Amino acid sequence: MKDWKKTIIHASRPILEALKILEDIALQIALVTDDDGRLIGVVTDGDIRRAMLQGVALTEAIQGIMFRDFTVVNPSTSREEILSLMKARDLRQIPVIDDSGKVVDLKIMLDLIRHPEKENWVVLMAGGLGTRLQPLTDDCPKPLLKVGNKPILETAVENFVQFGFRNFFVSVNYKAHMIEALLGDGSRWGVKISYLRESEKMGTAGSLSLLEEKPSAPLIVMNADVLTRVNINYLLDFHQSQRSAATMCIRKYHFQVPYGVVKTDENKFLSVDEKPEFNFFVNAGIYILDPQILDFIPQNKYFDMTGLFEKVVHNRLNTAVFPIHEYWVDIGRYEDFERANDDYENNFSK
Q: Do 205 and 318 fall into the same domain?
């Protein structure tokens, strides 16, 4: 039983602390109180992600983004009434407060926390050559490089299994036999793993055309060289709440020019901006696609995921972006590989 009291946070504390509560306590809510301990707001994962998209710094006080129009019950409210409220208002948690407004309990809809078995298919894109990691990939496909004590791809599969996913497809090309030898049919995890065998490079979306049938639920696609602790339940919930046909996970990327940037007007000097900093959102290599989106993918041709999203937009279907604040690394370069190994114990050995 998780300790709900650890979800309480003072309104003046930084958003970053609320984020840690959400990740560590895993009750999907932080309870914001005033100086007298009265409940004045709540914060969920969605509140923090919306703030990130608006450019709010995680060092700012939690009171600036907290939700003030929250639902509460009193200690005498029956279990049936609480469940009815949760269903009517689409809530996973409801705080219980006393007459003074202080939290005395937190009611949780347990069946939503336990990760029930899911019907969504997961496709892991593992067909790349990994040329930027040569010579490490001369004799080993990049998804099988060991980070920590196991191959990248094995960690990815196990993370999805923990969230209740049971149906996997892995796109393979370079040294496919090694990947298939490692994962097999998935029986070691109690799941089903099938393979999308590329005869040539098909890009980050092209191999989806090799699926023999269309899924009945949104499809999760992830590059097999990505290691992340993103909460897939939050991602699916977000995709559905936005009524999105295609959702792309994004990650904030910070870049500082190491020089003074000179502004000119033809041959005239105007000013110098010393070592300017820029922040962008970049593609994180994780996607949710509704089944009908697969119709936009050409058969047996090279096709990237960016092209697929452009087609979705062109056809006036709804798209969404989901900012990742959890641990994430794209192992594309040697320095990324080293960093992932340094980070592994803290993020994947718990």
A: yes
